[in-house]
Amino acid sequence: MKKSKSMLCLLLSLLMIFSLCSVVSAEEVEANQWEATQKVVVRGKLSANNAGEEVTLVLFKNGEDSVSQSSIGYIGQQTIAEDGSYAFSFKFQGDASQYTARLNMNGKNVDKSITSASVESEIISATVSAKYNFSTVDIAVEMENYFGLADKPYVIIAAAYSEAGALISTESVQSGMIANGVSSEDAQISIPENAAKVKIFVWSDYARALPYGDLATVSVAGNEPAAVHFIGDSRGMTHAEEDSFPVQGWSYFLDEIFNSNITVYDHSAEGATAASFISSEKWDAVKAELAEGDYVVAALGYEDAMSNTPVIEMETALETLQSDAETKGAEVIFTTPVPTAGTADENSNLTVYSEAIQSVAEKTHAVCVDVNGLVKKQFSNPELGYQPYDLYYISPAAKTHYTQFKGLSAKVEALLSAGDTAILNERGAKLVADKFAQGLASCTTSLTGYLVDFTDAKAKPVRYREIPQLSYTDSKGSEIKAVLFYGMPYHGSESEVFAYVGVPAGASETNPVPSMVLVHGAAGHAYKDWVELWCSKGYAAISFYWREPSSDYDHKLADGVTPVDYYAGPRRSDISTSVLTGDKADHFMVHATSDISLAYNLINSLPEVKKGETGITGISWGGIISSRGIGEDTRFKFAMPVYGCGNLTLSTGSIHPDSIYDGKYTFANTVKAGMPVFWINGSNDTFFSLHATSQCSYETLSQLCIKNNNGSHSQQHGSGSTGDIPELFAYADYMLKDGTALPTVSKLTMNGRAASFSYESPISITSVKLWYNTTGIVYGNGIGKPGTTAWTSVNITQTADGNITYTVPDDAVGIYFEVKDANGLCRTTDYIELKK
Q1: How confident is the model at residue 359, as a pLDDT?
Q2: Dist. CA 311–CA 53, nearest whole Å
Q3: Superfamily of segment(s) 2-120
Q4: Cys staple from 96: which of 34, 131, 471, 574, with CB 3.0 to 4.6 Å?
Q5: Distances (CA, A) of 687 to 576, 640, 681, 773
Q6: Count of other CB atoms within 10 angstroms of residue 556
Q7: Superfamily of domain 124-219 in the CATH hierarchy
Q8: Is the pLDDT of residue 423 over 70?
């Protein structure tokens, strides 16, 4: 992470030098002209007195003095040969005649020294495609390495532009090495606010910007500001929370289904029929506000059905509404009325009026979303688990759920006394808004371009409620809140997730702090002491609960006693394909990894938190979940899976399922993410073998720390404490607080019995050790039993250059090396097993 920042700074510094320095003379001058756009070789010659000096080459679009959104600059550096010559070789696609090459040496331009430019055969090409998908752009890149050259780097860059063509942002989407032959890479980016176009580049790396492939440009729908005017009765009307909690109308949640370019205006009127609204001053006021390109969402018809208004009267009023809006250049979206939890006769009558509304839409060539049908289908879902009345309406059964947040309003108490079966609670209102979005997505209307991807947790707005009686201030002054945040739909209904959220003492909007997302292990829960621990280190933190297979913690906190009432998501059962049935949106791993993204959204919504300065750590099963989650959500600055990992099929520990969820959630996603990861495991861990953890470290090009211990699942992570592993906090400080870096250790290589690796450290190294066993890893005789592997350590003499080669003992089978610095912090090589 820090390395990429430094490369960008170097680029900017070099460009500043080029724009300010003067041109010096050269011995030999030739026109800078290229005949083709394949592989380009730029050669030149300076005085032999310059031998050994570094020269840098930059390409500028003709008439420009710096790299901008309309030009790509290639930066390369070469050492001048003994005779004063130099040569640059690089791939270039585009019209080369539109670019000028400039050379820099010692802060001065020497571009006139360029003596020749020739073109050679193409080495690498890339075909880039991009597709707009709600709030994201999906990117596919096919790369061909014609000569089978190994170790060729690439980086996919996404640049977002406004409607006027101004550059809004650039993002390094994905990077890696091009394998021999054909390589297919998939990536995704979130679309910045106000972006009209996104352009995709494939470069050699971020600093040099050497283009490998054709440019892809995708237009972003829904980028122009527009208004949605909502017209409905009391069931669609937005209610003031202080007067009505938990009553809510579904127009309240339209802000969540549309992007920020849509402004929603609620014009609902309690008790309104179609005819009474169209003949009212309210409709006159709406017509006066309507502008070309606006939308009218008409959610009328319920009161018509309840009062048995003649159908023809309703149809006539709706046709007038459509005509009036069309005259103003606005588009009408009709909706059918929401069913009630009342009698079958009531809902049968609503069906009659729903069909009439659909007929009006067909007659006037307008769009109609059948909300009535979509909500009724949800009510009939056999997996729902709750009666629709109890779940979505103001019912006595839901009273306990809402009173844990705050007292009920007088209006709600009256509705409860009256046994009302038509007024929605906020959960029901959100369901209706979601079903409206679902139906709208399949309609032919430009309004769909403003929808956010309601299946993507990263795009889901933050909504949570504090549970006051479970919140507190700890002994160090950190504020710890118990909350329920709204999760992804489970069997079609929005789930809730319990969490503790902590903000350290002294943090404020003017003094924000970085943050951590904490993912518990098996037999675990959301741990307030874990949150307290990170708060004591100066971090805001959130620890949420993913559901275990056992019901022990259902509606209870970690103590197994304190009650909490919520609508939970799926339980963890297994991640093998044998149990993955039904709708994928209901699978445990989808919810668990989505909860990671939602926790990120929540913690970053707090004013005391530095936006985007967030890491994640997971323990045991939380290590499995977080190691997959970072492949789905790359917004985290880093990850620290502890005693849990990917590559579980390689594990010889107790946890080694036959398959790793499905194609989307395999560990390959994490490898592609390119995120800094710090893997930690115990030498005798019962559940996760060192083989799997070492492979994770190798595949992600990340660092590893094996903690030598005699326990089975050390540091008591499964019981709620992270243990005070100093490397965890030191690495977080390095990534988020500019703390001191830990030692870095290379991959271990073998030549016979000679083991080699290298290490670096910003502070002195106090010890280098070989740890070895003579048996390979030996696990306990059952799940959770301590491992019995016996380990021997050997002190290794340090070297000045940090390069170590050591012949391991003849009886050594399993080995790794540990490097410890003056702060007592260690990193290790990977673990490997040898043949005797």
Answers
A1: 97
A2: 88
A3: Immunoglobulins (2.60.40.10)
A4: 34
A5: 17, 17, 10, 19
A6: 15
A7: Immunoglobulins (2.60.40.10)
A8: yes
